Structure formats: structure tokens, C-alpha cells
């Protein structure tokens, strides 16, 4: 919010005025009101393994995070570029593996990876699209510098917050939007539906029937699943609603079976078809993978897309951009050391107290070590884990992340934040100007995951 | 529409209806229990019986007010307790979320865990307020559905569930009190029966309505006519059957089919039309009521089969 010299960044001037007009106490009162709206609407999420309230709220911060039009133009190009490269990579690894043959990526990282799905080899999904919704986690590391923390190519969640946060802000503070300088995001569901229809399978005749597949109402992201189905005007199905017959997938309706063309599935690869993947899966739809491979249905995202967002593969994304697109990466990666490489491991073990170390296959901020915030014993214990299984760990510098203004009990305070835009890939690539800003609500904390006390805020892209 | 969604809407409406009916029964129990000589009669036993769950209690034991409140309002293991009904209605709603309006969802979501924190003593103490709360929740939900929901097949499934549940509740209430209605005399004998029947009418929100239709006196014929055959009273069996016939016809229309459940309900309506209260007493009120319960159960099964529930 502030320039290095302490002055207000111009794009935040309007928000600053608003904060002064309303006062901190006034804003905190409105915060309770916002929370009540969230609770009543039922926007909740569950945290696995923590017990307690099965449906709790993600804390919402009233102060928006703002990108200028100029900043957004860079992000927009960088995000789309990355989404294209990741999809090209997926097509390559499930076909000829040119990137390995060219010596750019080691074969092991791909073919020995548990996220690589041999069953997908030599199959080309409609439009060559594997990851239809690419969520890219981005941090700002300097005034004009954005870097990518990680990619999410399977089923990135959180887009409902982008829409609901905006909805609640416009409902509560219409005056902030009166000048029309904030780019709207509410066409996301329509854009998503368009993208999904564009990848209808060869067997589809006429207007494609799209559904959202949820594991069920106990899933932590169920609210989002129903929200998206609702806004797209498509059915929200559970696995038991679907079955396979005569080479197509059908849903059980009150009219009898109805064919389904495109499935936006929010259920993991391994649970999707007990005949091909986990035979013990109670969730799956037996035979669906075979129908998929024969062009009877489209799964979005494609099974096996996870290989593109694996943390060991992440390191090579800038190379992918050069290799497949012949372009220079617009968004860089965070510097990352791979513990599997002896010299990098040595560096990591020596400097662990200053680094953030992560498990390659972990997600959600679990199983990571933040060096500067850990005790000597914790660091030593983590170092032992790295030595025992070096290939399973990476490390990154503790970033000098910029902070965003956040409402505290007595004042506006700076908190670290990251940003996840949702890039849509069909025949075209689409990006709604906005995304999810997650913010660490504890001072100095770098962990923004909602499962660990992070909050969310509205994200504004200014139109200039 | 997904069969699972239809089933969820149907059951959501049934559970909400059941929650309200159970709340009304508890009011009835309290009214009857304060009548002179009440503890000899074990009024709470008849309240539990009206919910169809008497088999949860020992055959000859007394059922106390605390027992009834614990079982019918709070018991998470009784699948028909108000608490279970509200939880299940919300779970159904969550599963069919895309078919609900925001207002309907909010009505179900508001205070959905409220009853978790009550023990029997507290609930007894605050019974009237809790019952009002339950009724308000259900009426808000119903109002939201009536005023905002699209009149598509989803709404018809919802109203079907609600009418079926309501018909069964009125039938069971009639059955619990049928022995008071045995027409030995023209006017139901004595104050006690009078109060018992006004309690039943209150439980069905029908006391005032009854007077509007029939004037002052309570006769077995008139009360039976009111609760079974009167097509204006929205909790009467006849009204619920009419509603079921209307909804099932609409559903068949949406689906462009002729369904067995449609024929069944038309026969139920026609059979009821043939009856008058004199006829009912000639056949036997108890037998008529049992026949009604059997028919409605069968109808429920046919609906489930026609529309591919579970």
C-alpha cells in the first residue's frame, strides 16, 4: 500500500480515504456484519483432521488488494503463457517426451513420479487440453516483480471466494465501486462454461451437456462445487449419479438416463474409476476411464495432469516456456534448491535456518519448515528427514514478500499475501481480471493457507 | 433433474413437515397434561404414539414429559426427533443446494445446530419458546419456497413430500384419539374429551378454523369430517390427497408419462369422496385410518420407484 518512501501508492488512495472516513472501529463492526453474511449464506470450508466445527469460515479481510491496470497487463500475459506451456508439457510427456530427449528435463523426475499416469500415454484429450483451470500462486517480491510459488493444474479451489468476496464488498460498500474503475469478475462462471463446452468429446452431438462432479456434501470444498454448478446452470452430480453404458456416461435423472459430455470433476484421479485406479474406491464410476479414452466423455482436468504441478517439475517451468513456446518467461519462479542434487542439498542443509523447506508432494502448507521461525531442534529434526529422503524435499529462500494493507483491531497493518488467478483453457485461453488473494493474518507469518489460519480478501484490478 | 436431487427435495420437505408436526404434538402434550387427572392417563404416551415411535418405550411403562421431550425433541438417535429432522433436512438441502433459493437455504441453515446444546431440563423450561422457534424456522422455509422457488419439477417434488408427510401426521393423530370419538353419544361426553379434542385441534392449528366451519359443538362426526374430509382445511387428509394428486399430475406432465402413483392417488381421492363421516364410523374410524396410512405408504414407495429414487 505504501511506497518505499512511506507515501501512499496512488492506486490505494481511494481505499485510504474510505478507511479514514469510516474509522478502524467502524470497519471492524462492518467486518462482523460481513462474517454474518458469510455464515448465513453458508460459505464455509472444513479442515480435515482438526475436528471441531465441521463447517467453519475463512476469515475475510475488508481491505481489498489492488493491482493497477499496468501490473495486470504483465500478469495477464505471464499467467496465460504459463498455462499454455504447462498444457504443452502435459501433451509432450504423455506422447513423445521431447523435453526429455532434448536433455532439458531428467526422465526420472517425470516417469518415476507418482503423479505420472501411465494409463494416459498416447491419448490426446479434446483440444489437446489437459489442465482446463490452471491456478497459479504468485507473490510479489519487489515493487515491479512477481514470482510464481507453485502451479495447480488439477482442480484448484478457491474461485468461489473470488466471486463471493466481491459480492459481499459490493453489497456492503457500493460507494467504493461507484466510479466503475474496478474490473468486474462476475463473468467467470460463463467463461468457465464456455471453456468446458469447447472441449466436448468427439461423441458429443449438439450442445454439450456439462456437469460438475463432487465427492459429496461432506467435502471441504462442497460449497464451491455447488456454487459453480449453480452459476453455470449445470447439474451438480455425485459419483453415484453417474454410470457407464454403451460407451457413454449417463446421469440418473427423474426422466431416466441422460447423456453427459463434459465432466468438470472435483475428485482426485485415483478415485475416478475403480476398474483402472484404486479398486477400493467407493467414489468411482466403473468404466469411465475407458469411455474417456474412446472419446465418449471429457474429463476436466485430464487424469494425470498432476505431473505438471509437482514441485520437482515446477523448477523446469521456465525451461518449458522456452522449449515449447520459444518465448522468454514473463513470470519467474522463486529460486528453488532441489535436495536430490548433492551440491544443492549441501547448501540447503547448511542454510536451513534461513530457508523454507517443503515436501515435494505436500500441499496446503503442511509438512513445511520455515527456517527463521523454527527452533534449533526443529531444524535439526527436519535436516535428518532431508538426509533420509533427499529427493522428497526442496527449499526456497524466505522471501522478502511485500505486504498488503489488512485491517487489524486498532490500525491498518501490513500482512504477507499471495495471489491465485484462475486461468481457463479451452480452445481459447481466458483470464478473468482478478483472483483469490490469501493473506497471513499473523504478523510476520508467511503461511497463507486457509487451513492454517490464513484469510482472504477481495482483489481489485483497476481499469485505466 | 437428477433422481438424487428429486429425492433430496422430497425428503427435505418431509423432514421439515415432521419437525413442525412434532413440535405441535409437544404443545398438545403439554396442554393435555395440565388437565385434571392427567397423570392417570399418560397423555405423553399418546403423544409418542402419534409419531409412530411408541415401540421405543417399554410396553406398560409411564412416559413422562421429560421422556417425551428428550426423545421427540433432542434425541440424536431418534431419526424422527426435531433435532434429527432439522439436521437431515439441512443435509438434504445441502445435497440439492442448486435447486434451493438463497432464502430457502438460509432458513434451513440458520441455527441448524441450536438444539445440540440443550439438555432436557433446559428444553423443558424453555419449551414454548423452543417450539415457537421450530415453527418459525419451518414457516420461514415454507414461505421462502412458496414465494421464491421456481415452479418446476423440483417444487413439485418438495410439495409432494410435504403433503404426504402431513397426511400421515393427521391420520396418526386421529388414530391416537379415535377411542374418544366413538359415537356413543351425540356430543362427546364431558369436559375431559372436550379438552382432549380441542388439544388435538390446537395441535393441528385447527381450533379456530373448526369453529368457523362447524360452529360451536364438538361432535365425533364433525371432528372426523373436519380432519378427514374437509377440503378447505389444509391439514385434513382430503386436502393433502388433493394436493398430492395435483402435484403428481404435474410431475407426470413434466416427464410426459403416465405413472402408477398417479392412478393410486386418484383412487385415494375418489375413495375419500365417496365417504362421509357416518360411513367412516360404520366401517370403523380406526380401520379407515389404518387404510389411509397403508395407502400413503404405498404411494410413497410408488413415487420413489417412478422417479428412480435411491
Keywords:
heterodimer; A: 464 residues; alpha+beta; Dna Ligase, domain 1; 2 domains; five-stranded mixed β-sheet; B: 310 residues; mainly alpha; globular
Describe the 3D structure.
The complex is a heterodimer of chains A (464) and B (310). Chain A contains 14 helices and 21 strands. Chain A has 464 residues and is an alpha+beta fold. Chain A folds into two domains: 10-334 and 399-461, no CATH class; 335-398, 2-Layer Sandwich (Dna Ligase, domain 1). In chain A, the strands form five sheets. In chain A, strands 1-21-20-17-16 form a five-stranded mixed sheet. Chain A has a five-stranded mixed sheet with strand order 11-3-2-18-19. In chain A, strands 5-4-9-10 form a four-stranded parallel sheet. Mean pLDDT of chain B is 88; it is low at 183-189. Chain B is mainly α. Chain B has helices at residues 3-33, 38-41, 43-50, 65-74, 82-95, 102-109, 120-125, 127-148, 153-176, 190-203, 207-214, 220-229, 237-255, 260-274, 277-283, 285-306. Chain B folds into two domains: 1-149, no CATH class; 151-310, no CATH class. The interface between A and B is medium-sized, with 21 and 21 residues.
Residue share in β-strands of chain A: 15-25%
Biggest interface, residues from each chain: A-B, 21 and 21 residues
User: Termini distance of chain A?
Assistant: 18 Å
The total count of helices of chain B amounts to: 16
- Largest beta-sheet characterization of chain A: 5 strands, mixed
Number of E-type strands of chain B: 0
Unreliable stretches of chain B (pLDDT < 50, length at least 5) are: 183-189
Write the element-wise H/E pattern of chain B from the N-terminal end onward: HHHHHHHHHHHHHHHH
Compute the number of structural domains of chain A. 2
What overall geometry of chain A do the principal axes of the alpha carbons give? Answer: globular
Number of strands of chain A: 21
Mean pLDDT score of chain A? 89
Radius of gyration of chain B: 19 Å
Number of helices of chain A: 14
